[in-house]
Amino acid sequence: MIPRRRVGASGLQVSALTLGAMTFDRSGPFGAIGSDPSELSRIVSAAVEAGIDTFDTANVYGESEELLGRILGPFREDVVICTKVRFPFAVGKSESLPPSNTYGLSRRAVIRSVEESLRRLGTEYLDVLWLHMQDRSVPIEETLVTLDKIVQQGKIRYFGISNFMGYRLTEAVLRAQMRDLEGPVGVQLSWSLVERGAEQEVVPAARHLDLGIFAYSPLARGFLSGKYQRGAVPAHGSRLAEWRDEYERYDVDRNWAVLAELVQVASEHNVPVGAVAIAWLLAKNRVASVIVGARTEAQLRENIVAARLVLTRSEIDRLDKVSKPDWGYPCDFIQRFEPW
After folding, report:
1. Catalytic hit among 61, 158, 216, 250
2. Residue 180 lies in a domain
3. Residues near 282 by beta carbon (within 8 Å), at least 6 away in sequence
4. Which intervals hold domain NADP-dependent oxidoreductase (predicted)?
5. CATH of the domain at 160
6. Nearest CA to 155 among 108, 104, 101, 114?
7. Is 250 assigned a catalytic role?
8. Is residue 179 part of a domain?
9. Distance between CA atoms of 121 and 156, rounded to whole angstroms?
10. How does pLDDT run along the chain (340 residues), one tens digit per residue?
């Protein structure tokens, strides 16, 4: 069974793997990479059976909240449901600007978004509400006071921060402490062997502030799954075939070297390549959960292998070395004398 981990300094416990529901949508902005509707119940059932009790969605994922809430209905009291606020609810595409109170982190937008997510999910409370991205147009105190009130009302149990700059993350935590308000318990961030930018500022800040880390996109849009070959066109229907700009960003010498090392480690353990990439994250300090997506039950079962895969210190060092970024100043200067 997949173990549970504590989220930072809070009392919240989550499964080491979280099932991400972005691909549950077939009509919204991510519909092109959405799962077949007939697969959804099987995917969730397989997750629950394996011990995954934590599920992540967002209002901007189109129909995902409604579909996930319907499937999780029978399990509601035994699962952790996470959703997000910041961007407008979206089904299909529209060229018109949405009403101002439907997006952002203002008091009005947050309250409206929470109420609508509760309705779509068919639940009376959210276990975790993530601030999906920073909003410089709104004072962080306004957002924090609003969230504190919603926690007191019992509509959310905890909240966390996602896609914030390191200094904005730190500001949110310190402002909450200064005002004696509920503060964030975790940070959700993009982190993988080919996307290690979070390690420069956000990961150290989260560790210093005792926040739990939720890593999303651990396979870099599927690039680290092992199904892509250098020089070959991405297979029709794959995520990177749909998002060619993402593929072109990953299609560089360093990333192919990372993938080659992953393939080697996976062969030594006789496990799927993607499982090694996820296990590398699970071995990192303060990681509470790694968010895995799956368009099919088979993909989910491959990802679940990571939960029981223990990499050696030598294997982790090999992967760290081949994927190490050029940090630049001041990180490169500081690390000559101490870890930053």
Report:
1. 61
2. yes
3. 16, 290, 306, 307
4. 17-323
5. 3.20.20.100
6. 114
7. no
8. yes
9. 13
10. 899 999 999 999 999 999 999 988 766 666 566 677 888 999 999 999 999 999 999 999 989 999 999 999 999 999 999 999 999 986 555 567 788 888 999 999 999 999 999 999 999 999 999 999 999 999 999 999 999 999 999 999 999 999 999 999 999 999 999 999 999 999 999 999 999 999 999 999 999 999 999 999 999 988 999 888 886 777 666 666 676 777 778 889 999 999 999 999 999 999 999 999 999 999 999 999 999 999 899 999 999 999 999 999 999 999 999 999 999 999 999 999 998 7
φ/ψ of 228, rounded to 5, equals: -105, 140
**Cβ–Cβ under 8 Å, residues 306 and 278:** yes
Q: Answer whether residue 161 is part of any domain.
A: yes
Residue carrying structure tokens 């926040």: 211
Global model pTM greater than 0.90? yes
Range of the domain at 140: 4-222+285-295
Give Dmax (Cα) for the chain: 55
What is the Cα–Cα distance from 304 to 86, expressed in whole angstroms?
A: 30
Residue 61 belongs to some domain of the structure: yes
Give kind and range of the element (H or E) at residue 92. Answer: none
Q: At what angle do helices 273-282 and 313-323 cross, to 10 degrees?
A: 100
What are the CA-CA distances from residue 16 to residues 58, 71, 281 (Å)? 20, 21, 10
